[in-house]
Amino acid sequence: MTLTTGAFLSYDFNRMVVLFTMKDGQTDVPCAISTAAMDDLDRTSGAKSPLQREEQFLRLRNLIEACAVRKYMQAGREGIPPGLVLRSVDFR
């Protein structure tokens, strides 16, 4: 099965990631993207507020979710519970 759009969760400043979910049928798949990866995609840098990170995620959502689907199909899950962590290298 393929992933579909889930929900934006939050910006985790301590881990420097944006947390979101994708759906595999009725199952939520926990996901995260590093802020460095988002800045690379957006060609920007610098500290951003939680609201700015959410706006950035929403603006880049199609690219981020397409990458999450590719990684999921390659069985790229990690952690407990198994989820996806997207980094800059995943977008190359």
Structure commentary:
- By secondary structure, the chain is an alpha+beta fold.
- The protein has a single domain (4-87), classed as Shew3726-like (Double Stranded RNA Binding Domain).
- It has 2 helices and 4 strands, in the order E-E-E-H-H-E.
- A 4-stranded mixed sheet has the order 1-2-3-4.
- Helix 1 packs across helix 2 (50-73).
- The model has no long low-confidence stretch (mean pLDDT 91).
**Please, what is the CATH homologous superfamily?**
Shew3726-like
Largest sheet properties: 4 strands, mixed
The chain-level mean pLDDT equals: 91
**String of helices and strands:** EEEHHE
| Radius of gyration based on Cα positions | 12 Å
Amount of beta strand: 25-35%
Highlighted features:
alpha+beta, Double Stranded RNA Binding Domain, 4-stranded mixed sheet
Write the layout of secondary structure elements.
Elements lengths: L3 E9 L4 E8 L2 E8 H8 L7 H24 L10 E3 L6
Parallel strand pairs: 3-4
Antiparallel strand pairs: 1-2, 2-3
Summarize the structure.
This protein is an alpha+beta fold and 92 residues long.
